[in-house]
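Extended Data, panel c. Modelled sequence:
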Amino acid sequence: MSQSKLPNFIIFGSTKSGSTSLCNYLVQHPDIFISKKKEPNFFLYDEGSIITNQKGKTTVYTIDWYKYWFKKAQEKAIGEASVSYIANEQAPIRIKSRLPDVKLIALLRDPVSRVYSHYLFNQRNNKHEGEKSLLKVIEADQKQGSPEQYFEKGLYYYYLKKYFDIFDRQNIKLFLFEDFTSAPLKVVKDIFTFLNVDSSFVPVVGAKDASSGIPKNQTIYNFIYKDNFLRKALRPMMRTLFPNREKRRVLWTNLISRNLSRPSLPPETRKVILEMYKPDIIKLQELIDRDLSKWLS
């Protein structure tokens, strides 16, 4: 089997931590290819698994299906981003089996902020039945074993330890969410170096993911996020006015951000959730050799 049409890097985590923006910055590099399919999630399942998603679409996860998403790749660095890999115990084993020398990249966000962002995202998309607090959603999620994995996706030490045990540490590159938000260009250039592509290339870095918050105006939200006649009609004009794809994305992201309100997480709720995460955060500090005191405060 030719390795040339399989990824040599994977962005494997974590959810609600800026991975969409990161991909948009990286893919501007002439020597980087990223699968246009967002989150292939191939390594979440055993090969040959038949999975039907919430929209009723069925996929057979074969290696040929996976290779399809990279068939046009001619670049030096070929990658994909499936951020749920980080919280799947079998994913590192499956990845190592197929891609033993792959390079792994992850952005890690303060787990309390991450779970709250995850909660707000699903709340605005009407995934919660009735009025449920974050604590109740986490409790129900843990009892029912929901695929959302609200709490589990923030147990970074527990899951990363498995990656560190299986892969050479020099093939794993981790950044904190605050690294990315404060100095996105530095993070991107560090990744260019990690992937052995020209680090002097300067991508357009604009607005970050607008993924947290509740819509102020549901009509505007639906126009931006859902397929509709007006949005389709405007696409040719937008491409003419803003030929640079990344600049168009920045424009849309800013529009989305202005339409979102971000209610604060109640201090008592934060305190309860932080206590749940604290043991894992303390172990994570040692594993990745980073000061995470801000996460613990």
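The longest helix spans residues 267-288. This feature is highlighted in the accompanying rendering.
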